[in-house]
Design brief:
The complex is a heterodimer of chains A (about 110) and B (about 120).
Chain A (H helix, E strand, L loop, with lengths): L2 E4 L3 E5 L4 E8 L5 E7 L6 E7 L4 E4 L2 E6 L4 E6 L8 E8 L6 E3 L3 E6 L1
Parallel strand pairs in A: 2-11
Antiparallel strand pairs in A: 1-3, 3-8, 4-5, 4-9, 6-7, 7-8, 9-10, 9-11
Chain B lengths: L3 E4 L2 E4 L5 E7 L5 E8 L3 E10 L2 E4 L7 E2 L9 E3 L8 E8 L10 E2 L3 E5 L1
Parallel strand pairs in B: 2-11
Antiparallel strand pairs in B: 1-3, 3-8, 4-5, 4-9, 5-6, 7-8, 9-10, 9-11
Classes of the chains: A mainly beta (about 110), B mainly beta (about 120).
Chain lengths: ~110, ~120
């Protein structure tokens, strides 16, 4: 069966450091992968999308990589701030745009 | 403001009492979807709709119904709620004219408790 895993439930880092979150998947070849941010009790908010033919995507302090050979995506937040504390979800397109399968998320805590 | 709205935001009900959670979007999106989110299980898709009068099952459709009579609205119906449907529910929408890569916009969530 299709499986998507985010390698840690929680990640604690200090302000100013780079946070790196991992998303691994099996048994599927998605055309693209997305990353979302979710704050407690709120809906996920889209951050970045990376296509299968792209190695890397950047947006301000965010960077996403996508290795279709390893079936892995890395999500980086550089110069992290306490305001970056949230749960981050990765999601794969699994059905020609009709369905996204989500990982369970990694909760990032940035301490000052 | 472009947004997806859900009502109610919080609901406590009893087993077997029919309820409807409404979802509305003002972005003229063709695609709408319902998810539930449970601790340890993540977000799982319940139903989705590609356009008016076109709906299909997601991963966990049992115990739920949907309808799409208007483009902007996509209500989720629980005909006979049970305690295992206690969850946090999210509605989402996206444009499909741009193809597979259009991002989803999520509503604020509805926290449902079935006693």
């Amino acid at each position: 069966s299709q499986k998507i895993e985010q390698n840690s439930e929680a990640l604690n880092i200090q302000e100013g450091k780079t946070a790196t979150l991992t998303c691994n998947y099996t048994n599927y070849s998605p055309a693209y992968l997305q990353w979302y941010r979710q704050d407690p009790g709120r809906g996920p908010v889209f951050l970045l999308l990376i296509r299968e033919n792209e190695k890397e995507k950047r947006k301000e302090r965010l960077k996403v990589t996508f290795d279709t050979t390893l079936k892995q995506s890395l999500f980086h937040i550089t110069a992290s701030q306490p305001a970056d504390s949230a749960t981050y979800l990765c999601a794969l397109d699994i059905q020609a745009g009709t369905a996204l399968i989500f990982g369970k998320g990694t909760t990032l805590s940035v301490s000052s | 403001e472009a947004q997806v709205t859900q009502n109610p935001r919080y609901l406590i009900t009893v087993t077997g009492k029919k309820l409807t959670v409404t979802c509305s979007q003002n972005m003229n999106h063709e695609y709408m979807s319902w998810y539930r989110q449970d601790p340890g299980l993540g977000l799982r898709q319940i139903y989705y709709s590609m356009n008016v009068e076109v709906t299909d099952k997601g991963d966990v459709p049992e115990g739920y119904k949907v309808s799409r009579k208007e483009k902007r609205n996509f209500p989720l119906i629980l005909e006979s709620p049970s305690p295992n449907q206690t969850s946090l529910y999210f509605c989402a929408s996206k444009r499909t004219s741009g193809g597979r890569t259009d991002t989803q916009y999520f509503g604020p969530g509805t926290r449902l408790t079935v006693l």
